[in-house]
Amino acid sequence: MSVYSGKPVTLQRPISEIYAKVSDLGQYKSMVESIPEEHRDKIAGVEFRDDCVKMDAPGVGELAFKIIERVPEKKVVLNAEGCPIPLKLMLDLVATGDTSTSITPRIDIQIPAMLKPFIGNKIQQAADQFGQVFTSLFA
Questions:
Q1: What is the pLDDT of residue 104?
Q2: Fewest CB atoms within 10 A around its CB: which of 8, 39, 50, 93?
Q3: CA 1 to CA 105: how far, in whole Å?
Q4: For the whole model, what pTM was predicted?
């Protein structure tokens, strides 16, 4: 397995609030429903449930990320189901003050050594972008 750590992002919210948001995916369903109709096509095929997010992935089919581990106010781990290679997304949380939290996203993926030079930098970019998603969600 190879682990790609994204750039840590600091959010100006207490760790309890951040953990509550990232450990319960079901609450994002109402957020998706509130997106104006003209913008919903950008996230077509994405479905949120309490412990899972499902999406249509080009070339792969239906892909689901299911929460398999929760460590209160420290970590959330999601496992990819339906993915042709073993893949986990991890979020490490650290309180950086009473009202700020650092999130470090990590991607744990099993790719053959000969493919690392070709796709390793793309996976690193994905890990970095994963952190930026949270910046925009909590802005």
A1: 95
A2: 39
A3: 16
A4: 0.84
